Amino acid sequence: MNPERLVDLAYLRRARDMIDRDYALPLDVPTMAARALMSPAHFSRQFRAAYGETPYNYLMTRRIERAMALLRAGTSVTDACLAVGSTSLGSFSSRFSELVGETPSAYRRREHPAVSAMPACVAKAATRPTRVTPAQATAVPAGR
To answer: Using an 8 Å Cβ cutoff, are 11 and 36 in contact?
Structure first.
């Protein structure tokens, strides 16, 4: 790996750290790119190459991850939506359903006993949302 690539990775890490820290603030790609000292288009390409997803998808995954923790704690869907920086309840619910595979309300109603028995750092890793494809959402689990 050449020294220029290492410098780019360090700048990308700075931007990713900003997303992790400031996920509830209104962030857009130009703001993230400025943190990485790159143009928005170059930043988007480099971020995707380094982390496997676009900066916006990474931001939304962080927001949904934090919302999941709030919903498990009993926060209302609207309050969780606003607390993680989403301004549209409809868009938040759509993205939540896409990533988690169920609506925020259904997730909030469901029991999460295993998660409450785990340390917070383990629960965060175990419940990290991943994109659910339409085929996965309609598939019947084995053994049912």
So the answer is: yes
Question: Do 45 and 83 form a contact (C-beta atoms < 8 A)?
Answer: no
- CA dist 18 and 103 (Å) reads 28
Q: Which residues contact 89 (CB under 8 A, 6 or more apart)?
A: 77, 78, 81
Model pLDDT for residues 111-137, shown as the tens digit of each residue: 877 666 667 677 666 676 766 555 555
Q: How far is CA 12 from the centre of its chain?
A: 17
pLDDT tens-digit readout, 30-51: 999 999 999 999 999 999 999 9
Q: Are 119 and 125 in contact (CB under 8 A)?
A: no
Torsion-angle region of 17 (φ positive above 0: left; ψ -120 to 50: alpha; else: beta)? alpha
**Residue 17 C-alpha from the chain's centroid:** 13
How many residues comprise the chain? 144
Q: Within the chain, how many helices (H) and strands (E) appear?
A: 10, 0
Helical pair 3-22 and 55-72, crossing angle rounded to 10 deg: 30
